[in-house]
Write a structure and sequence with these properties.
single chain; 409 residues; alpha/beta; Rossmann fold; 5-stranded parallel β-sheet; 14 helices; elongated
């Protein structure tokens, strides 16, 4: 019998969770309730009690309940719940996870779900789905969010319908979860990070790989990159083609396309063969700003406005050298075959000779600094083409075939 974990605050949501448990059971699945209550006694029995959760979080329930500060108490329970779920996963006792509640429950549940592997379906049911900033709950591990429509504060006819739909959703997700992941004779998967400025290159690469691999694309906009690297960590990919690692530049200079501090490190740590291109590493993305708001910055920087809300700005020579050292230090951690390909005629599709923002000298400064710091084992190969040209895309494919052979040799 497949098992579905219910993350719940049983001191306030006992009746509702009990109803959800019954609905899941009727569908032939075994519900396991984990109580993350931090304020009071559970209203219904739990499979993992709040006492056990607090202890797994490094504290004890009496201290959590009497704490005058809410945040440390919640963080303790979230840490403990994540630890208990990991234990259940290791024993094969988790096939899906669901949580119901308001904003506080959604914040806690999403932080727990971010620690759960992507392969396990996760459903977060909350009134918070309609609030500004709800995108923060989706995370990089495949969390699905459902609006509860009405407050989860006592059973009523409308909430019963929504809970029935939620039960159907998580059970359906669990039922279909493994059918497509491990088909017979599945081709090895290759992770590809790209975005609009490298679209032609990405399409060419994907088409060239299809005979022997299954290319999986991730958009270079922050969270998708974290998702890609968590899946690399979980062993999903045979190789990586990272055309746009520019979230490192954005993180360093406070740009909009930043992801996390471990960017460009996971594949290296795992020894996964990788080919890296410098798509956008010489730029910072500004999203959600008007040109008026950015006026002081745009007076001193080369820039390109995509539309009223998105502006790409370029680094200067000194900044380019500084950030190159960060990329080099990350790549130096690579335990597997790694090659860096440099397109000499621009690192974005629009970055071409004659454009006001095209400055090959700044790009050269980046490359020179990169070469100084990179280990000799990591080849830097220069290609006389723009990053979005077929010539460069073919060079990427050639380099990828080489690193895959190095892995097998």
């Amino acid at each position: 019998m497949k098992k579905i974990v219910i993350i719940a605050t049983l001191d306030t949501k006992g009746e509702e969770v009990g109803y959800l448990k019954e609905l899941i059971s009727k569908r032939g699945y075994k519900p396991l309730i984990i109580d993350v209550s931090s304020r009071g006694e559970a209203r219904i029995p739990a499979d993992v009690t709040s006492t056990e959760v607090a202890e797994a979080g490094g504290s004890y329930i009496e201290k959590v309940r009497t704490s005058q500060e809410r945040r440390p108490a919640v963080e303790t329970m979230a840490k403990g719940a994540a630890a208990k779920i990991k234990e259940l996963i290791e024993s094969g006792s988790v096939d899906g996870v669901i949580s119901i509640g308001g904003m506080s429950s959604a914040v806690m549940a999403s932080s727990i779900m971010e620690e759960i592997p992507w392969r396990i379906p996760k459903l977060l049911v909350s009134t918070a789905a309609s609030m500004p900033g709800s995108n923060q709950f989706f995370g990089p591990t495949g969390i699905t969010m459902m609006h509860s429509l009405v407050d989860i504060g006592g059973l009523n006819s409308l909430l019963k319908v929504q809970l029935a739909r939620a039960a159907g959703a998580i059970c359906g997700m669990v039922e279909g979860e493994n059918q497509l992941l491990n088909p017979p004779q599945q081709k090895p998967m290759v992770a590809i990070c790209a975005y609009g400025y490298t679209e032609n290159c990405a399409q060419y690469v994907c088409h060239a790989l299809e005979e022997h691999y299954e290319p999986i694309r991730f958009h270079a906009s922050g969270v998708p990159e974290i998702a890609m690297e968590k899946l690399i960590e979980d062993g999903f990919f045979a190789g990586v083609i990272d055309l746009v690692p520019s979230s490192i530049t954005n993180l360093f200079f406070g740009g909009s396309r930043s992801s996390w501090a471990r960017r460009l490190e996971i594949a290296g740590e795992k020894g996964v063969p990788q080919v890296i291109a410098p798509g956008g590493v010489n730029t910072i993305s500004r999203v959600g700003f008007t040109e008026e708001a950015l006026a002081p910055e745009l007076k001193t920087r080369r820039h390109y406005s995509m539309d009223a809300q998105r502006v790409t700005v370029w680094l200067n020579d000194d900044e380019s050298r500084k950030v190159a050292s960060i990329y080099a230090e990350k790549l130096n951690k690579a335990a597997g075959p790694t090659k860096v390909l440099i397109p000499l005629r621009g690192w974005l599709s629009i970055e071409k000779e004659g454009a006001s923002f095209y400055d090959p000298q700044v790009n050269r400064s980046f490359v020179d600094e990169l070469r100084k710091i990179l280990r000799n084992k990591i080849e830097v190969r220069e290609v006389d083409a723009n990053i979005d040209d077929p010539t460069f895309a073919q060079a990427v494919i050639d380099a990828f075939n080489e690193v895959m052979k190095l892995k097998d040799s």
